[in-house]
Specification:
It is a single chain. With 228 residues, the chain is α/β, with parallel strands linked by helices. The chain has helices at residues 44-54, 68-71, 74-81, 156-166, 193-199, 201-204, 208-216, 218-224, and strands at residues 2-4, 10-16, 23-29, 34-38, 57-62, 84-87, 97-98, 104-107, 110-116, 125-129, 132-136, 139-140, 143-144, 174-177, 191-192. It has eight helices and 15 strands. The mean pLDDT is 95. Bound molecules: fe (ii) ion. Fe (ii) ion (FE2) binds next to loops.
Length: 228
């Protein structure tokens, strides 16, 4: 399934590929054909076909973090397109160039800006593109990324700080997460910073202790609030 969020020459496709309700993103400049893939998922051939159909040439592959459901097809997509892979050095992504906080990836007159957002993984990055923020696994619709022993190198404290860095973006910034985790499939595939600030229970937590407490008791909270 593809959600097309394009506007004018801004090409922006949210694509269901990958094993765990993953969202992959194709970002492009419709005037010049320049494009980037963010977290291309597993099915690189399908991803490449979609870009070809759109008349877009992928020269850059941006990785939010090194978990396999996000990077599984990156090498193959690199092979198909000749694109350069970028990802956080601390996530040790094979074949990737290190990305730095604030690094800009131009697509003609459009630009993607990398934002360091460690927490769910130590080298996690979000990518901001013309008012649209691809959040990987740090911020989902109504939820946030996992931390703890299941996620090596993760840190709840870092995640809290990174989330509050994202909350300083304008309220009308669109949030495009790495997974379709809200309710049933396609129920809320994207959000805004303003909406999450007001409604996401992890973001309305008054301080780090409350945030951390909610993380520790999330299963119970979900049950009480009928959250899937
Ligand atoms: Fe992840």
């Amino acid at each position: 399934m593809i959600h097309d969020h394009s506007e004018g020459h801004i090409r922006f496709l949210q694509i269901h590929l990958g094993g765990d309700r993953n969202f992959c993103y194709l970002i492009g400049n419709g005037d010049t054909g320049e494009a980037a893939a963010v977290d291309p998922g597993f099915d690189s051939e399908r991803f490449w076909e979609i870009a070809e159909t759109e008349g877009l040439n992928i020269s850059t592959i941006l990785i939010t973090h090194g978990h396999s459901d996000h990077i599984g097809g990156a090498d193959k997509l690199k092979e198909l397109t000749g694109a350069v892979i970028y990802g956080g050095a601390e996530d040790k992504i094979s074949g990737a160039q290190p990305v730095t906080d604030g690094q800009i990836f131009p697509l003609g007159d459009l630009a993607i800006t990398a934002m360091a957002t460690p927490g769910h993984s130590p080298g996690h990055f979000c990518y901001l593109f013309e008012g649209r923020l691809v959040t990987g696994d740090i911020l989902f619709c109504g939820k946030v990324g996992g931390t703890g022993s299941f996620f090596p190198g993760s840190s709840a404290r870092q995640e809290y700080d990174s989330l509050h860095k994202l909350l300083r973006l304008p309220d009308d910034t669109f949030v495009f997460p790495g997974h379709d985790y809200y309710g049933g499939e396609g129920q809320r595939p994207h959000s805004t910073i303003g909406f999450e600030k007001e409604h996401n229970p992890f973001l309305t937590a008054v301080d780090f202790d409350a945030f951390s407490h909610l993380k520790d008791n999330w299963a119970q909270y979900k049950k009480e609030h009928d959250i899937r």
